[in-house]
Amino acid sequence: MSNQLELRHLKYFLAVAEELHFRRAAERLYISQPGLSRQIKQMEDDLGVILFERHNRKVILTKAGEYLKKELSITLKSLDYTLHHTKLVHDGKIGNLKLGYVGSAMQSVIPNLLIAFEEKHPNIVFSLKEIDNETQIKHLLSFDLDVGFVRLERVPKDLETKPILNENFCLVLPKSFKISSKSLKNLESFKNESFILFDPKYSASYYEKVMQIFDDSGFLPIISHNTIHAGSIYKLVENGFGISIVPKSLAANNNENLQFIELDKMKQKTTLSVVWNKNNRNPMLQNFLKLI
To answer: Across the strands, what pairs with 3?
Structure first.
């Protein structure tokens, strides 16, 4: 690399590569658009390559630009991690892990894993965020997360996945419904009820699996509400806005106003998986995966 290039040039390039728009990238970097254009042109001249195809209304990465974007994303995230880790060492810590999860994973899976992990690695800092499936995938690809807990059938090729929990679905009903798992033959008796379901944007594959339950039961459900939080589902069911279907791990047995009936005769199951980026260089990630 030419000694004319500095770290700021690399950050400028990544901003343009991600935005594919010089004005938006300049606003993001708090510099002028002409100044940003000059810096990118200087970078191309120093490298002796063309990184962007410039058109009147759009900017396109060349093959060289695509390659540089992918490699710099990894390298700069690694640098950020190194600097952050340096601060952790100064504070007496040995590392950190950033975890994303869907709500059902927090019921028992994640707490049990963290307890077991902390026994062997007591000086770890954990960052935990409840995030929908698709956002977790984006954050894993950009190295803003180390580990995700998702309900997805497929993930991009740069990610690795491992199923850790396969479970039945549960029907969620108000306590006032006089029905039990023994008396429940199929869901057809609920065809006139309103259903409150997880939003398909939360996970399209999960939503499709729930819809297959209705297909096998012989009716199309009346969907009154979609949400991404189990707590919202339970409040709506409690207040008579409808009934729901959730993973078994979300069955809140301590809620006196609800009843949960396990759909153990249904062939549809839902799988919770751990997912991570195979290019992630955080050493704590490998220790965590060994535990899993």
So the answer is: none
pTM, to two decimals: 0.68
**Mean pLDDT value across residues 247-272:** 87
Confidence bin at 252 (pLDDT 50/70/90): low
* 47: exposed, middle or buried (Cβ count in 10 Å: 0-12, 13-18, 19+): middle
- Look at the block and give the residue holding tokens 């806005």: 241
Q: Answer yes or no: CATH 1.10.10.10 is held by domain 7-72.
A: yes
CATH entry, 169-268, from 3.40.50.300, 3.30.565.10, 3.40.190.10, 3.10.310.10: 3.40.190.10
pLDDT at site 3: 53
User: Does domain 93-164+272-291 sit in CATH 3.40.190.10?
Assistant: yes
Looking at the chain, which residues constitute the CATH 1.10.10.10 domain(s)? Answer: 7-72
The pLDDT value given to residue 1:
46
Alpha-carbon distance of 169 to 249, in angstroms, equals 9
